[in-house]
Amino acid sequence: MTILLFFLFPPSITAAQPLAEKGRYIAAAADCVACHTAENGRPFTGGRPFPTPFGTLYSTNITPDGETGIGDYSLEQFRATMRHGKGPHGNLYPAMPYTSYYLVRDDDIEALYRYFMQLPPVENRPPKNRLIFPANLRFGLSFWNWLYFDPEKTLAEPAGKSAEWQRGSYLVNALGHCGECHTPRNFAQAMRFDKRFAGNVLEGWDAVDIRPQSLRRQGWNRAQLRQLLTTGSSERGTLFGEMYRVMQHSLRHLSDDDINAMITFLLDDSEALPERPGNSESAAQNYPGGRGDFIAYCAGCHGRAGSGITQAFAPGMDNNAAIRAARPHNAIAVILRGLPAQRLDRERARAGMPSFHRQLDDARIAELVNFMRAAWSSGGAEVTAEEVARIRHSLEEEGYFSPAH
Ligand code: HEC
Ligand code: HEC
Ligand code: HEC
């Protein structure tokens, strides 16, 4: 029926349409869909759970349904949610990343508004929040905002940086809200701006340090970063956990110019540091047990020399950013948890990796990681069995070894 009506009364081309079209792009760059969609739910209809130390919060329906969505929002009200975290029914919890979106420009906010308002309205009421007192009181958030949120603070635009760098900074800081995951938080869950992008563990993964100096230390160059951010795999390893979804829902839909701008900002216009090759012979001598376990459990997929099989199958370990990272968290967590198979499209699918939680104890995993780090990179600190035990324990507490994960 709708299709028939469409042919009888084709929508007239109005000035609002290009704006809505632009809004669709801004919504992709800002990844609204990731949070406002429940697992297997319809896009933007809300209901994704956000576990917090104070209970569980659910995202809302942002389709223009009058009853259950944002159909009654004026542009001013919409702007207030993005800028000040204020909804018509009170303050929003900072799980809605207004602490980054407040930097989004007015014209982009208006485009977003036009885009959401012309979507088909869908009636859907997400579950009620289950938060403990006093976190369940929205007015308490005014105090949080007063302490930790300064909407007057603008995006730094240092003189001497290119227009491309400035665009990248806007995409990373404001729309992409990359800092929300990659910045450490204080006890009240507020981002620590003195450590912007310095890395933070969430959902059991280390959202690694992505400051220029750290990315260069990992050996990333422009071409590899472009491949990683737009396809999820590269010569230096793959994206996994929430970062895979950022690529899937957001980054791969961005224009080449915008991806290039982000990379210019991320690498700060600088070249990678010199390679830091390891030494596989001395590594085998120093960590014979680690080498033995690598051959027995890992080489079938990652290759005896650690150079991977094919990119589609299993990534190389010899240039791998997770192996080179200053903090070994992800290398250890991947071995413990394994990774699910991923399928982006017909050409880009990859097999998963099994969990070794039951096969390998803490001391053996420590030696395995030490072997890999010594064989294929250098300069990383020695991993101890205590460190592996600590990570295993926290993953266990958070339920990542249950069958659902
Ligand atoms: C990191 C997760 C996340 C992202 C990304 C996100 N949101 Fe939200 N948003 C939430 C959560 C959670 C809430 C509910 C907060 C609350 O109840 O206090 C929310 C609330 C809202 C509300 C208030 C709705 C209401 O019923 O009052 C609007 C409007 C909104 N988001 C729009 C957007 C738009 C537009 C984008 C993209 C530009 C976006 N959100 C991206 C998590 C997110
Ligand atoms: C059945 C094949 C398979 C086996 C066996 C396997 N892996 Fe993997 N591994 C993979 C795949 C596939 C990925 C990438 C998955 C993804 O990102 O979705 C991966 C990812 C990783 C990563 C994360 C780095 C990155 O770039 O993704 C590390 C570290 C790793 N493997 C180490 C090991 C170690 C150590 C062992 C042995 C204890 C091992 N793997 C055994 C297939 C395997
Ligand atoms: C929802 C949380 C989340 C958001 C938002 C997010 N990241 Fe990530 N990111 C992660 C996690 C977790 C990892 C570690 C897993 C991996 O390497 O794939 C990661 C890894 C990365 C890596 C790999 C670095 C390395 O050396 O291995 C890069 C680069 C990166 N993120 C850039 C970005 C950029 C740019 C943005 C904003 C557009 C962004 N991230 C937004 C969670 C996030």
TrEMBL record:
Give the keywords, sorted. Answer: Heme, Iron, Metal-binding
Please name the Gene3D superfamilies in this protein's record.
Answer: Cytochrome c-like domain
Return the InterPro entries for the record: Cyt_c-like_dom, Cyt_c-like_dom_sf, Cytochrome_c-type_DH, Membr-bd_ADH_cyt_c
Entry keyword Iron: yes
Q: Residues in domain Cytochrome c?
A: 18-120, 163-270, 285-376
Among Pfam families, the record links this protein to: Cytochrom_C (PF00034)
Q: Which domain of life is it from?
A: Bacteria
Q: What is this protein called?
A: C-type cytochrome
